[in-house]
Amino acid sequence: MKKLLSLLLVLSLTLLAAAGCGDEQKTSGNNDNQDKNLTPIVVGASPTPHKEILEALKDTLAEQGYDLQVQEYTDYIIPNTALENGEIDANYFQHITYLNDFNAENNTHLVSIADVHYEPMGLYPGKTASLEELADGATIGIPADPTNEARALLLLEAAGLITINPDAGIKATPYDITDNPKNLKFSEMEAAQLPRALADLDMAVINGNYALQANLSAATDALAAEDDQSLAATLYVNVLAVKEGTENDEKLKALAAALCSDTAKNFINEQYSGNVQTVF
After folding, report:
1. 113 by DSSP, 3-state: which?
2. How far apart are CA 166 and CA 160, in angstroms?
3. Which of 2, 10, 92, 275 is such that its CA lies 20 to 30 A from the CA of 223?
4. Angle 117-102-176 (CA atoms, 0-180°, nearest 5)?
5. Taking the domains of the chain in order of start, what are their residue ranges?
6. pLDDT (tens place) for every residue of the chain, 280 residues total
7. Homologous superfamily, domain 122-229
C-alpha cells in the first residue's frame, strides 16, 4: 500500500511539473505572438558603423510598432541587388554618389530617403610611417570601385602628392593624374581588402567604415583625411536607400525619421568620436 501511495505521489508531482512547463511555453508563445504583432522592417547594412547605428534604434522603432531586422553585408553590391529584388525593405551602407552610379550602371531603381552621415576617408600608413618618408615609386592602395577610387585620388591631391586633371572631377582615375612627382604606383583593390593589405603597401586610402572595422581612426591614425568642410561631406553622404515607389511607405518613413533623430545623433557622436559625422 505504501508503495502504491508513493507511486501515486510521484505521478502527481510529475503531472504538476508538466503542467508548469506547459504554462511557461504558453507564456513564451504569447511573447512571440506579441513580437509578431510588430511590423518588420528588414534593412541591409554594413557591419560598422551602419549596423551598429541601426541596432541602437531598435527600441525606438519597437515603441512605434516596428520590428527592425538588420541583415549584415560586407560588400557594396549584394545589398543593392537585394533591395532591387525586394529581398529587403531598405539598405544603409553607401554614399549618394555610389548609389547614383550603381543605378546608372546596373539599371536599378533605388532612391535615397534620408541623408544621415558621412565617414571621412583617410590615408593610412603601412610600410611607410609618414608623408615625409614616402619614397620615389612607393605603392599606395586605393579602392577599385569608380566612385571611391576618384574620392581617394582627390584626397591624395589634397595631401599634395599628385595633381589631377580638373576636368575629371569625381570620375577621376589614375589616368587623369597630370603630375606625380614621386612616381607613385597605385594598387587598386576591393575597398574591404585595403585594411588587410595595409602591411604590404606603403600607404592606403581607406573608406571610413572599413577603417573603423580595422580599429583605425581618421582623427588619430590617418596621415591625411577629409574634413567636414570638404566636398566629400556633400558628395559622399551616406544615405538610407529604398526601392523607387516605396518612399511613402509608413514604416520606411519611420525608419528615416529614427536615423535622423537626436537619439541617432547622440549615439554617433558618443560612439565614433568624429570618425562618423552626422549631416542633419
Report:
1. strand
2. 15
3. 92
4. 90
5. 36-119+236-278, 122-229
6. 433 334 333 333 333 333 333 332 222 233 343 466 999 999 999 999 999 999 999 999 999 999 999 999 999 899 999 999 999 999 999 999 999 999 999 999 999 999 999 999 999 999 999 999 999 999 999 999 988 999 999 999 999 999 999 999 889 999 999 999 999 999 999 999 999 999 999 999 999 989 999 999 999 999 999 987 778 878 999 999 999 999 999 999 999 999 999 999 999 999 998 899 999 9
7. Periplasmic binding protein-like II (3.40.190.10)
CA–CA separation, 186 and 140 (whole Å): 5
User: Omega before 49 cis (within 30°)?
Assistant: yes
The whole-model pTM stands at 0.76
Is residue 122 within 8 A of residue 225, CB to CB? The reply is yes
| C-alpha distances in Å from residue 126, one per residue of 129, 141, 153, 216, 253 | 7, 10, 17, 12, 43
Domain 36-119+236-278, classified CATH 3.40.190.10, yes or no = yes
Write b or e for each residue in 20-52: b if 16 or more Cβ atoms lie within 10 A of its Cβ, otherwise e.
eeeeeeeeeeeeeeeeeeeeebbbbbbbbbbbb
Residue 133 DSSP one-character state? T
Rounded Cα gap, residues 271 and 119, in angstroms: 13
Q: Tell me the C-alpha distance between 252 and 254, whole Å.
A: 5
DSSP for 215-274, please give it. Answer: T--TTTT-SEE--TTSTHHHHT-EEEEEETT-TT-HHHHHHHHHHTSHHHHHHHHHHHTT
